[in-house]
């Protein structure tokens, strides 16, 4: 039996075999694990979008932070962000998620293509993929309509949407396509999805795009 001390909290420990490589006690290790669960990487935010702030966003897009989002923290529950590609939709959504995570709460980030990929990877066990998205306190659904154009995908998307709606869980949806889809609903975006996604705040990026303004 070899006594050793946790290098962080100084609690005395004992090793029955060799000393651990990292001299941290069980409690301190657990604390580390909990911290990484709440990071942007842990929430699924792609590397490109990590560690961004409102100030970065405003500087990059030479734009004011949307007034409606100045104090948003989940009420109303749904936020739909739309605009042409490259106008900061994903960045906007991700900053909101990052701010939420920085207060020590959980959240998730998933894109349409990634969600379809994960469902397809193991059709028999999609619960592991879907359940966290049903219950997470804040979800970013990035371009959900660019996932697989298949029933199995839309069914899951509807389940996520309906469950979060019923549980009043804050959800941010980004989409390039929303204005067109509102004008002409299609099988690609069934009304049960659209009506919920659009039931809260609607934020448009890249306001000078004339095509979008006409669609509104
Ligand atoms: N908050 C931010 N601060 C700085 N740069 C950003 C931020 N958000 C996005 N960007 C950069 O701008 C690019 C386009 O923004 P993005 O949010 O992806 O637009 P969209 O989702 O509308 O296509 C991204 O690839 C990213 O590099
Ligand atoms: Mg995007
Ligand atoms: Zn310790």
Q: Topology, pairings included?
A:
Layout: E1 2-5, E2 12-15, H1 26-37, H2 40-43, H3 54-61, E3 78-82, H4 89-102, E4 108-111, H5 112-121, H6 127-135, E5 139-142, H7 151-166, E6 171-175, H8 178-183, H9 191-197, E7 201-204, H10 210-215
Parallel strand pairs: 3-6, 3-7, 4-5, 5-6
Antiparallel strand pairs: 1-2
Helix pairs in contact: 6-7, 7-9
Description:
This protein is globular. Strand 5, helix 7 (151-166) and strand 6 form a beta-alpha-beta unit. It is 43% helix and 14% strand. Helix 6 (127-135) runs parallel beside helix 7 (151-166) and helix 7 (151-166) packs parallel to helix 9 (191-197). A 5-stranded parallel sheet has the order 4-5-6-3-7. It has a two-stranded antiparallel ribbon with strand order 1-2. By secondary structure, the protein is an alpha/beta fold. It has 2 domains: 1-37, no CATH class; 43-215, P-loop containing nucleotide triphosphate hydrolases (Rossmann fold, 3-Layer(aba) Sandwich), CATH 3.40.50.300. It is built from 10 helices and 7 strands. Mean pLDDT is 89; it is low at 209-216. Adenosine-5'-diphosphate is lined by residues 48, 52, 56-57, 60, 83, 85-91, 95, 174, 205.
């Amino acid at each position: 039996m070899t006594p050793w001390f946790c290098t962080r909290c100084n609690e005395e420990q004992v090793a029955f075999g060799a000393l651990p490589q990292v001299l941290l006690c069980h409690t301190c290790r657990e604390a580390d694990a909990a911290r990484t669960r709440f990071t942007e990487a842990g929430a699924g935010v792609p590397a490109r979008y990590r560690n961004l702030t409102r100030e970065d966003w405003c500087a990059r897009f030479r734009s004011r932070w949307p007034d409606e989002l100045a104090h948003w923290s989940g009420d109303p529950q749904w936020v739909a962000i739309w605009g042409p590609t490259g106008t900061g939709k994903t960045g906007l959504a991700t900053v909101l998620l990052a701010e939420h995570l920085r207060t020590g709460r959980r959240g998730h980030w998933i894109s349409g293509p990634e969600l379809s990929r994960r469902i397809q990877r193991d059709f028999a066990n999609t619960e592991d993929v879907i359940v966290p998205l049903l219950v997470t306190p804040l979800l970013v659904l990035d371009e959900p309509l660019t996932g697989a154009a298949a029933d199995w995908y839309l069914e899951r998307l509807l389940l996520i949407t309906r469950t979060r709606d019923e549980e009043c869980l804050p959800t941010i949806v980004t989409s390039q396509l929303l204005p067109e889809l509102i004008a002409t609903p299609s099988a690609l975006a069934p009304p049960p999805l659209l009506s919920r996604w659009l039931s809260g705040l609607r934020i448009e990026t890249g306001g000078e795009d004339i095509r979008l303004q006409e669609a509104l």
